[in-house]
Specification:
alpha/beta, iron, about 15% strand, five-stranded mixed β-sheet
Length: about 400
């Protein structure tokens, strides 16, 4: 892991982005924000999955008017996850007209390419920054190559065309993205918004472009940086592309907050993007969010599908439990669990985990030894192996990890 890119520290409600703070996972709803019931339900889903910040679209008067009720219901349910308002085109109108919404939102996202053109651009941008200053709100200056400032990009392209040694158009696009973000952030600072109230992002949809752009950003500024491919795609394509792009940058110490912008699969859950972001950070050993499950890929020795079913059951069980465990217990997110399929690597991997089970492979005796902290403690047999193993995991958790209340009392 490379040295951390030094940035300003930005407070967003109870969450800190940048500085020495851990990398923050965020997500975004895809509901109509004016539909309070659906939006609240999805924010709860994302927060339960571990999203530490949730962005909502504020694109209409109905959406802006709904924000206070969304906050009221979330707070009544005990949810305090910061909510970010995503503004395009008419943000200057909505933020100035809906005063309570502007006051309640924990952060505003502004896209410099969508605030207007000519003199209107500066006026509208300044209007939103003035509201942020009034309520001491942080702002993300979010540039996107699908809505890049046309005046800026055209000027840079024209200058490059007149150059004696013109650069490839892709390099000019990178420069336009970076310049748009930094000049907009600098303009906000000149207007009176503190450097410690600004996060910037330059969203692109190709891996190599994202890496190049964020390396440029890290070289040129100390604003906190939000990472993520835009329109990453669906399924394995989106997961692989996001993991490679953000993984390389995070390994270089670049990035303070991330989102994995997956296209949800049909009937898929929105919280998938949260889980992938967590897994990226956990695989890099940047942060821990949930117990890791080690499981073999299967081979000719494991013709039974039971170990695959058990692996899935255990993974779902742990993530479901983590909704409450993360608030109640200290250190449980670092637990290692193993579900192995045969005698070749099963016992060894199980011994390396905090708690592991080695299921019988094809032709092996129908018994499954369970190892706790390297020692065999029990052998499970019969039809209830899954339920018995999950109960053993739960017993281990409550025996091993202290309640947060005890930690608070002792301090």
């Amino acid at each position: 892991m490379g040295p951390r890119h030094q940035t300003h520290s930005v407070k967003v409600g109870p969450v800190t982005i940048g500085g020495d703070a851990p990398v923050v996972v965020q997500s975004m709803t895809d509901t109509d924000t004016a539909d309070v019931e659906k939006t609240v339900a999805q924010i709860r889903l994302l927060a339960d999955a571990g999203s530490e910040m949730v962005r909502v679209t504020v694109n209409t008067e109905e959406a802006a008017a709904a924000v206070p009720e969304i906050y009221r219901q979330l707070r009544a349910d005990g949810y305090h996850v910061p909510i970010v308002g995503d503004f395009h085109y008419n943000g200057h109108l909505l933020l100035t007209k809906y005063d309570e919404t502007a006051r309640l939102l924990d952060k505003y996202r502004i896209n410099p390419g969508n605030v207007g053109f000519g003199n209107k651009k500066d006026d509208r941008f300044n209007a939103m920054i003035d509201v942020a200053i009034k309520y001491d709100k942080p702002v993300r200056i979010g540039v996107n190559w699908g809505s890049l400032d046309k005046e800026l990009s055209t000027r840079l392209m024209d200058e490059n065309a007149r150059s004696d040694n013109p650069k490839p158009s892709q390099e000019i696009l990178h420069e336009a993205l970076v310049l748009s973000a930094i000049t907009s952030a600098d303009a906000a600072v000149k207007r009176g918004l503190g450097e410690n109230r600004i996060v910037i992002s330059c969203k692109v949809s190709r891996v190599q472009d994202l890496i190049s752009v964020y390396q440029m950003l890290a070289d040129r500024c100390q604003y906190a940086l939000h990472l993520g491919l835009t329109e990453a795609g669906m399924g394995s394509k989106g997961i692989v592309a996001s993991s490679i792009a953000m993984g390389i940058l995070l390994q270089q110490g670049i990035g303070n907050t991330i989102r994995t912008s997956l296209t949800p699969e049909p009937n898929g859950s929105r919280d998938r993007e949260v889980i992938v972001s967590q897994q990226i950070l956990q695989a890099l050993e940047v942060r821990s969010f949930a117990p890791e499950v080690t499981a073999c890929p299967g081979c000719g020795r494991t013709t039974s599908t039971f170990f695959r079913v058990l692996t899935d059951e255990v993974d779902v069980f742990l993530r479901t439990k983590m909704v409450t465990w993360r608030h109640q217990l200290v250190g449980v997110e670092d637990m290692k669990v193993a579900v192995m399929g045969c005698v070749v690597n099963g016992p060894g991997e199980s011994k390396h985990a905090n708690i592991g089970i080695s299921l019988p492979g094809t032709g092996e005796a129908p018994s499954a030894p369970v190892f706790v902290d390297g020692k065999k403690v029990k052998t499970l047999k019969g039809e209830n192996i899954a339920e018995e193993y999950k109960q053993m995991i739960e017993d281990y958790v409550h025996k091993t990890y202290p309640p947060r209340s005890e930690l608070i009392a002792s301090s």
